[in-house]
Design a protein that fits this description.
- It is a single chain.
- Helices cover 58% and strands 8% of the residues.
- It is α/β, with parallel strands linked by helices.
- The strands form two sheets. The chain has a five-stranded parallel beta sheet with strand order 2-1-3-4-5. It has a two-stranded parallel sheet with strand order 6-7.
- It is elongated and about 90 Å long.
- Mean pLDDT is 85; it is low at 86-90.
């Protein structure tokens, strides 16, 4: 892990200085090491400023606080901005922490990056968000970090805002990443042969599979993803969560996803002597599509939100960790399945 001389570097237009300085003062009060060009004039004296600022914003600071405004965007020659955005493109973790002063768009910065807003959040709120961001860093815990007892302990020790969500998102994201090949193969309607051959009409095995899927659904709905299990893991409002329960709940999310995949995979891996039995079975396997897609989207959204968690929580966003349970079959697919069953030999 790279070590940095400064926690944050500041980049803003001179015209906005009166809005930025209160944030700077609070950051210092909170013990944050700040690179502020106004305080480095003696250090800059006689140096090549292009090289100096390139180094400061590319390798000396962990984050850059970029205060965006019409004044800031209008200064196209600002070396700080170009260097900061260049590094943001190169590294996979967040680096630029943008703060809006007005609604001017920032060229070169993804519109999906989380913002804070000086018109909405006061200087203390923004300074506190920076402290929370640094706490998340000190835990060395990100959605791409391997989950180990040591990494979880570090996260719980630092307790950055929303650490419970970050832990859950990481468990789910990494678990589903390991299942990506199987997930893609499901929608290719492919599975390796499992050695099972169905010689009859297939009606009995189709009924058994319906019962099995129903049981997976019942356990998920009635036992695993309930309000009480969520509260036990994440804690009541204002109370800390339980790290072990959060990890377990995330693992159950992944396990349920894998159970549904395996249910469909078994169907595609079976060989059918009768063509109509094969057709009916493969239609049945598509019963899993909607739920797999919904759970996969949740994992994607969790991963995306985790990258900007501090900003989103500071902005007052309510993070929804509810697992979508959409185990219904679309009417068109149900009709197709019924037609396929009617064609089975009696």
């Amino acid at each position: 892990m790279a070590e940095y001389e400064f926690d944050v570097a500041l980049s803003y237009a001179e015209e906005d200085q009166h809005l930025v300085l209160p944030v700077v003062a609070l950051l210092k009060d909170f013990g944050v090491d700040v690179f502020h060009r106004k305080e480095r004039e003696a250090e800059m004296w006689g140096l090549d400023l292009v090289e100096y600022f390139s180094e400061a914003f590319s390798s000396r600071a962990r984050y850059v606080l970029l205060f965006t405004s019409r004044h800031y965007v209008g200064k196209w020659s600002r070396l700080e901005r170009r260097t900061a955005l260049g590094r943001a493109l190169e590294q996979h973790t967040e680096y630029v922490l943008p703060i809006r002063i007005d609604d001017t768009a920032m060229p070169g910065l993804s519109p999906h990056v989380g913002y804070l807003d000086l018109r909405v959040h006061d200087a203390k709120t923004i300074a506190d968000a920076v402290v929370q961001k640094l706490a998340q860093h000190r835990a060395e815990f990100t959605p791409t970090t391997p989950i180990t007892p040591k990494s979880v302990a570090a996260l719980v020790r630092e307790k950055p805002r929303g650490w419970e969500y970050l832990l859950y998102a990481t468990v789910v994201a990494q678990g589903l990443e390991a299942l990506q090949q199987k997930y893609r193969e499901h929608f290719l309607r492919y599975s390796p042969r499992n050695g099972t051959v169905e010689h009859g009409s297939g009606i009995e095995v189709i009924r058994d599979r319906n019962v099995l899927l129903s049981e997976i659904i019942a356990v998920a709905v009635d036992s695993v993803f309930t309000p009480s299990t969520q509260e036990a893991a994440f804690g009541r409002s204002g109370e800390p969560g339980d790290a072990d329960r959060i990890v377990h709940l995330g693992e159950l999310f992944v396990r349920t996803f894998d159970e549904i995949l395996e249910w469909a995979r078994d169907i595609h891996g079976t060989s059918y002597a009768d063509a109509h039995a094969r057709t009916a079975a493969h239609v049945q396997a598509r019963f899993a599509d909607r739920q797999l897609e919904a759970m996969h989207k949740v994992a994607h959204d969790l991963r995306e939100v985790a990258d900007t968690l501090v900003e989103r929580l500071t902005a007052g966003e309510v993070i929804d960790m509810t697992v979508p349970l959409v185990f219904e079959v679309e009417p068109a697919l149900e009709r197709e399945f019924k037609t396929a069953l009617e064609r089975l030999p009696r």
